[in-house]
Amino acid sequence: MFQIYLPIAEISVNLLVMLGLGAAVGFLSGMFGVGGGFLLTPFLMLSGIPPAIAVATGANQIVGTSVSGTLAQWRRGNVDLHMGALLIAGGVAGALVGVLLLKYLRGVGQAGLIISLTYVVFLGTIGALMLWESVNVMRRQRAGKSVSARKSGQHNWIHGLPFKMRFPRSRLYISAIPPLAIGGLVGLLASFLGVGGGFIMVPAMIYILRMPTNIVVGTSIFQIIFVTALVTLLHATLNHTLDILLAFLLIIGGVIGGQFGVRAGQKLRGEQLRALLALMVLGVAVRILIDLVARPADIYSIIPAAGG
Question: Has residue 130 been placed in a domain?
Fold first, then answer.
């Protein structure tokens, strides 16, 4: 009941499960300022969707959830357009590299393994660092000790870089190089892993660029819209791995969940949000690692060819 056939993925899935998955990812996008692909793509793979199709379709769904989240953040004045433009410029370059890399790996039959291993490394590292920092902040607060605030404009090595620009909304005067580099890395991850890259971009904007946390969330989602839209187009035209029907179901759920996520995020403090996001990231990393090392139920499986 409620089964629907996906023409590109060439499998049948439960309609309600896909809608619920999209809504859950949209909720996370609005709450944490991340695209949610770091959860969506692995879950699609666990549902039997081929890795390359999960990456392309996951990136497409992030466009819908990010639009929903950005509109909500825009109304609150939490989007820095100047910073967003630089992040987008870097993201476009990174996306081109990632799509071509995935195309090559599909050709040699190693896409699934490399994608899974990359997820484990990135999510495990980022999640552990974020959890460590968040727990330390909360422990110091409970002990009544002062917590050094991350104020906008306070930097160290970034001040020595050239090509400085002013970002009035974030109250920053820094080099354009770090935002471009962060955007490039996020674009690469978006195209190669099917993620929005928020789990990398949000910590980088907070700890490296020293942007205010509320501006970080809105600007992060804003950048994700344009980069994931480009990634979707590139995967559809170059790799032919976009399942429109699956993407449509995920977007419907994601747009609805995004609005509720923004409201929930307003009720939690910054360190609480970071701790929750860290635990979620670590949980996904562990799940993927278990899936890699555990003995599969079916030793042999049939995966559609790269050209199909």
Answer: yes
- Residue 187, both tokens: 């674009």
CA 138, CA 144: separation in Å to the nearest integer?
A: 10
What is the per-residue pLDDT for 241?
A: 76
Three-class secondary structure assignment of 3-57? EEEECCCCEEEEHHHHHHHHHHHHHHHHHHCCCCHHHHHHHHHHCCCCHHHHHHH
Across 249-273, average pLDDT: 75
Residue 164's region, left for phi above 0, alpha for psi from -120 to 50, else beta, is beta
Residue 150 within any structural domain of the chain: no
- 226-238 as b/e, with b when 16 or more CB fall inside 10 Å? bbbbbbbebbbee
CA distances from 153 to 90, 150, 170, 181 (A): 22, 9, 8, 19
* Residue 161 DSSP label: -
Dihedral sign, Cα of residue 84, residue 89, residue 93, residue 99: positive
Number of domains in the chain: 1
pLDDT in tens, 74-107: 887 778 888 888 888 998 888 888 888 888 887 7
Determine, yes or no, domain membership for 147. Answer: no
Residues 230, 235, 240: CA angle, nearest 5 degrees = 145
Residue 150 CA to its chain's centroid (Å): 23
pLDDT higher than threshold 60 for residue 167: yes
The answer as to whether 21 is a domain residue is: yes
What is the β-pairing status of strands 3-6 and 11-14? antiparallel
